[in-house]
Design brief:
With about 210 residues, the protein is α+β, with helices and mostly antiparallel strands. The protein has six helices and ten strands, in the order ααααβαββββαβββββ. Helix 1 runs parallel beside helix 4 and helix 3 runs parallel beside helix 5. The longest helix is centred in the middle third of the chain and has 17 residues.
Length: about 210
């Protein structure tokens, strides 16, 4: 995807918010208000880095969510304080278990100090922004529980990822084969592949396209 074709992070969040307000207002209420400067600065001090512009822009729209939610494919966005807590937890585990070095059978270490966990899956895997210098800086990959980090199918940026989420909601289609649905109680839910799908025994409804 060309960077010229990618909406700004704030622009994508505005579209996502408007879609939620129309089709899943209860889920919109779970999104936190913008981060306050002191909390953002405190989190950056913990990690010892300045957050990338796309992440700061996202936190300035919503400082994470009040509880885990299926708002995004496979993951739930973290607030600034939760980013710092997740990073500290992973650094502690990695330091105690040689997780900062790349094992012979892995391409990436289990954790790296320059990975910023911006979101997490239901089972606690982190969606991380890679701040290591080089051509891959800024890309989004995964840091799981057992194996090394995975950037084999990385998103080029947080802006590109959120752009694709908003595009799926407004134009139809999926986000790398994850498709949007509505649950029986009006929550946005993403499933792998086209339906029909059941969630807890209830049929999922294909998400409406756009605001109409």
């Amino acid at each position: 995807m060309s960077e010229l074709a990618v909406s700004s992070v704030a622009g994508s969040w505005r579209r996502i918010d408007a879609w939620l307000a129309t089709h899943a207002p209860a889920m919109l209420s779970l999104l936190n208000p913008p981060v306050v400067p002191d909390e953002l600065e405190s989190a950056q001090r913990v990690l010892g880095v300045q957050f990338p512009a796309h992440l700061s822009e996202s936190l300035s729209c919503h400082n994470g969510v009040g509880e885990w939610t299926s708002l995004l494919p496979e993951q739930s966005p973290l607030g600034a304080a939760a980013i710092a807590e997740h990073w500290k937890m992973c650094m502690g585990i990695a330091s105690d278990n040689d997780g900062l070095v790349t094992r012979p059978w892995d391409e990436e270490p289990w954790w790296h100090p320059l990975w910023v966990p911006w979101a997490e899956s239901a089972d606690g895997n982190a969606h991380v922004i890679d701040l290591r210098p080089g051509s891959g800086s800024g890309q989004l990959g995964w840091a799981g529980h057992a194996d090394g980090g995975d950037f084999s199918d990385a998103w080029p940026s947080l802006a590109a990822y959120l752009h694709e989420v908003s595009r799926a909601l407004y134009e139809g289609g999926g986000v790398r084969d994850m498709y949007p649905y509505l649950t029986s109680d009006g929550q946005l839910w993403w499933e792998l592949g086209k339906g029909p799908h059941l969630l807890n025994g209830d049929a999922l409804q294909e998400a409406p396209v756009g605001l109409g």
